[in-house]
Design brief:
This protein is an alpha+beta fold. The longest helix is centred in the C-terminal third of the chain and has 11 residues. A two-stranded antiparallel sheet has the order 1-2.
Length: 99
């Protein structure tokens, strides 16, 4: 299966790695990233989520936000950037809504 949203990536245990045209990228823990988007009522489809990311390296060099060229989906590891995770009840409620 190929995930189309951050929630799909979280259910499939795949980390989100936005990659800039300069080659810089950072992988995010999918559960914390989904919770971040959910709390703000942002669209979590991967095509729409690109507008919420920007490269810090290019941003400091060019003095403007540079959006990622693509999203890579990688296996979840300890090296991922971890945002605050959702409460277990909230996560289970979201999974139950999809089933």
């Amino acid at each position: 299966m190929e995930p189309t949203s951050i929630f799909d990536a979280a259910t499939l245990h795949m980390a989100i790695n936005p990659v800039c045209t300069c080659g810089h990228g950072a992988s995010f823990n999918p559960w914390g990233l989904w919770w971040h988007f959910h709390r703000r009522h942002w669209d979590d489809r991967l095509t729409s989520a690109r507008q919420r990311f920007w490269c810090r390296v290019c941003g400091s060099r060019l003095r403007r936000k540079v959006r990622p060229a693509r999203f890579d989906l990688v296996k979840v590891s300890d090296a991922n950037l971890v945002l605050p995770l959702p409460d277990e009840r909230e996560w289970k409620r979201a999974v139950a809504r999809v089933r």
